TrEMBL record:
<dbReference type="GO" id="GO:0009317">
    <property type="term" value="C:acetyl-CoA carboxylase complex"/>
</dbReference>
<dbReference type="GO" id="GO:0005524">
    <property type="term" value="F:ATP binding"/>
</dbReference>
<dbReference type="Pfam" id="PF03255">
    <property type="entry name" value="ACCA"/>
</dbReference>
<keyword id="KW-0443">Lipid metabolism</keyword>
<dbReference type="InterPro" id="IPR011763">
    <property type="entry name" value="COA_CT_C"/>
</dbReference>
<dbReference type="GO" id="GO:0003989">
    <property type="term" value="F:acetyl-CoA carboxylase activity"/>
</dbReference>
<dbReference type="InterPro" id="IPR001095">
    <property type="entry name" value="Acetyl_CoA_COase_a_su"/>
</dbReference>
<keyword id="KW-0808">Transferase</keyword>
<dbReference type="GO" id="GO:2001295">
    <property type="term" value="P:malonyl-CoA biosynthetic process"/>
</dbReference>
<keyword id="KW-0436">Ligase</keyword>
<dbReference type="GO" id="GO:0006633">
    <property type="term" value="P:fatty acid biosynthetic process"/>
</dbReference>
<comment type="pathway">
    <text>Lipid metabolism; malonyl-CoA biosynthesis; malonyl-CoA from acetyl-CoA: step 1/1.</text>
</comment>
<dbReference type="GO" id="GO:0016743">
    <property type="term" value="F:carboxyl- or carbamoyltransferase activity"/>
</dbReference>
<feature type="domain" description="CoA carboxyltransferase C-terminal">
    <location>
        <begin position="1"/>
        <end position="223"/>
    </location>
</feature>
<keyword id="KW-0276">Fatty acid metabolism</keyword>
<keyword id="KW-0547">Nucleotide-binding</keyword>
<dbReference type="InterPro" id="IPR029045">
    <property type="entry name" value="ClpP/crotonase-like_dom_sf"/>
</dbReference>
């Protein structure tokens, strides 16, 4: 399968969305709303859930709302909730599915860039276990805001990149019709990102991805739930030093 075919699969409107995963993983799940500054962004679905005996904060992009493009208030909601999770020693799980953050003028006026930057910064310093899972399309800073975590997983037909193949082709060749070629060059598939050391685990898509994912998440929680702060921070530091070639 060509890279562009996987991009199409990642964007398929019939793919499972964040709430599908949350409802399968968590029983019960209590959704939390608002950034306490401006409003609630419904693109970011987030709240406290129980995965078997483990309490977690789970956060995701809901792709069928504003195409999964979160506004600044969405990312500030994330900041509020990960701070709450750290206070109560709950692991954070994020479900990434976005082509990028909302880039409208109102989002920029309300501080989109700083909201994303603060998410990246705060995630990197959390003293609790963190896990991000790309369930579809992960694009640009909108994805990275939820992706600086201890481990990064991807669904088999997910993609992760700095921009879309269309955007890449437009910038490099001024021709969006070369998106197939761009997708191949970008190394944005789960398999390629695993080979490059960016992704830690790939969840197979064979019709049982909900079941597979829950089993793997439980293994992650069993291994990391009681990990000391020093070990959490050291593990995360080493991971990103390795990714950055340091």
């Amino acid at each position: 399968m060509e890279a562009i075919d996987i991009v199409r699969k990642a964007r398929d409107v019939n793919r499972l969305k964040a709430m599908d995963y949350i409802e399968y993983l968590c029983e019960p799940f209590v959704e939390l709303h608002g950034d306490r500054l401006f409003s609630d962004d419904e693109v970011i679905v987030a709240g406290i859930g129980m995965i078997e005996e483990y309490s977690v904060m789970i956060i995701g992009h809901q792709k069928d709302r504003n195409f999964g493009m979160a506004k600044p208030e969405g990312y500030r909601k994330v900041l509020r909730l990960i701070e709450y999770a750290q206070k109560h020693k709950m692991p954070v799980i994020t479900l990434i599915d976005t082509p990028g953050a909302d880039c409208g003028i109102e989002a920029e006026q309300r501080g989109q860039s700083s909201a994303i930057a603060n998410c990246i910064c705060n995630f990197s310093q959390l003293k609790i276990p963190t896990l991000s899972i790309v369930i579809g399309e992960a694009g640009s800073g909108g994805a990275l805001a939820l992706g600086v975590t201890d481990e990064i997983w991807m669904l088999e037909n997910g993609v992760y990149s700095i921009l879309s193949p269309e955007g890449f082709a437009s910038i490099l060749w001024r021709d969006t019709n070369r998106k197939d070629e761009a997708a191949k060059l970008m190394r944005l598939t789960s398999k390629e990102l695993m080979e490059d050391g960016f992704v830690d685990k790939i969840i197979k898509e064979d019709g049982g991805e909900l079941y597979h994912l829950k089993n793997e998440v439980l293994k992650f929680l069993e291994k990391n739930y009681l990990l000391s702060t020093d070990k959490i921070l050291k593990k995360r530091h080493n991971k990103y030093r390795k990714i950055l070639g340091g």
